[in-house]
Amino acid sequence: VGPIAVGNGPRGLAVTRDGACVYVANLLSNTLSVIQTSDNTVVGSIPTGSGPGLVAVTPSGDYLYVTNYSGNTVSVIPI
From start to end of 1-79, where are the E strands? Predict the structure, then answer.
């Protein structure tokens, strides 16, 4: 498996509880890239606040929490 192209300035990432997806914070694109782990393809992009850096999945697997460094906020994203 080679590199997977995501948004600009990839930083933190989180894996879903079932391991089906990886979410990558793209600091300079203000997005999360969604990677499907079964074939390592990017299947989507989710807008965030300004300068996303760290990503966490809740234990229930229902939400992502994303720190937005430049915006001094946290995005809460249902998954």
Answer: 10-15, 21-26, 31-36, 41-47, 52-57, 63-68, 73-78
